[in-house]
Design a protein that fits this description.
Elements: E1 2-9, H1 13-40, H2 45-58, H3 63-85, H4 95-102, E2 120-123, E3 128-133, E4 136-144, H5 147-156, E5 157-166, E6 169-177, E7 189-194, E8 198-202, E9 207-209, H6 211-230, H7 233-242, H8 245-255, H9 262-266, E10 282-285, H10 289-295
Parallel strand pairs: 7-10
Antiparallel strand pairs: 1-4, 1-6, 2-3, 3-4, 5-6, 7-8, 8-9
Protein name: Probable transposase IS891/IS1136/IS1341 domain-containing protein
Organism: Lipingzhangella halophila
Pfam family, one: OrfB_IS605
């Protein structure tokens, strides 16, 4: 299965400027391709390439990057009509739907772009990467990550990687092809009830309460309202500093649900942070669609967030 491993880039100022110029130039090129596709009605990749490839190359965009931009734009213009037909932009005549249908798709200047493996190189031992930009190939860019991520990159890295600048900090999201773990036959099951007041309650009497998260959210809400009312430069700076802090805090708390050590010795089973029962027990969670999407969205139990997924037999039942 494919998993995404994030690493933190530590580029010097000149390399960071080159990376930023690369993202800006590529997304400007994608906006140009989107405009041509919308005005001419050309939504097929090969036909669109004949119209825009020469202009993209004149803008200094590398050949492989130009091909990716064209494919990215075609995919976006293919997805948009499907979303419109599905009603995701409202009924016919709705303002949001009319806006989406009346103009070409626009890409943010800082939106990530995918790098193929041939356009970048990895030195896992030295913890450096080399990335091709419009200013040339930037070599020896250091990156930082945990030992588990480093091992995953060394063993399973395969496919593209996306550089992203978030709040002035650069990250690189690498795709890894991790082999599926073998599924086993359990000798029993533990029920897990998912909720809001208690994040998870197991059938053997153990519970993980959500009071800490609720208290944290209650503390943050009045502070955000107070800063939003100020509208001063310092208040805006503090709001920007606190952006996404709550989601990161919730994700960290969900990831650190502490398993009691004696479970391994006494019952030889353990409720992990992903809600799976390890060793020889299966899992029988209650199927709560609304609660699961609201409370557990982005939590470490999500398979895309895990570097080494453990295949645990699971059954779901309707409440």
């Amino acid at each position: 299965m494919q998993v995404v491993v994030p690493v933190k880039l530590q580029p010097p100022p000149e390399v960071a400027s080159a990376l930023r110029a690369e993202l800006t130039g590529c997304n400007d090129g994608a906006n140009y391709v989107s405009t041509v596709a919308f005005e001419t009605g050309t939504m097929r990749e090969y036909a669109l390439r004949k119209l825009v490839y020469a202009e993209l190359r004149e803008r200094g965009i590398k050949s492989a990057a130009a091909q990716r931009l064209i494919k990215k734009t075609v995919d976006a213009h293919t997805t948009l009509p499907a979303n419109i037909r599905a009603g995701n932009f409202g009924r016919p005549g709705a303002k949001r739907r009319s806006r989406a249908e009346s103009k070409p798709i626009a890409f943010r200047a800082d939106a990530a772009r995918a790098y193929e493996h041939r356009n970048m190189g990895w030195d896992i031992g030295a913890q450096t990467v080399a990335i091709t930009t419009m200013s040339g190939r930037m070599k020896g860019i250091p990156f930082a990550c945990g030992p588990e991520q480093l091992t995953t990159l060394a063993r399973y890295r395969k496919g593209e990687a996306d550089p992203i600048c978030r709040d002035g900090v650069w990250f690189l999201y690498a795709t890894c092809e991790v082999p599926e773990a073998e599924q086993y036959e359990p000798d029993g099951f533990i029920g897990v009830d998912l909720g809001i007041e208690n994040i998870a309650t197991t059938s053997d009497g153990s519970s993980h309460a959500g009071r800490e998260l609720n208290r944290y959210r209650k503390r943050q809400l009045p502070l955000r309202k107070k800063l939003q009312k100020k509208r001063t430069t310092s208040a805006k700076r503090l709001l920007k500093k606190r952006s996404r802090r709550e989601s990161r805090r919730v994700k960290d708390i969900n990831h650190r649900i502490p398993p009691p050590a004696q479970w391994w010795q006494d019952a030889a089973r353990n409720l992990t942070a992903s809600g799976a029962v390890a060793v020889s027990s299966g899992l029988h969670p209650e199927k709560l669609t609304a609660v699961g999407s609201a409370v557990f969205h982005g939590s470490p139990h999500h398979p895309r967030k895990r570097s080494h997924p453990v295949v645990t037999p699971a059954l779901r039942r309707e409440p």
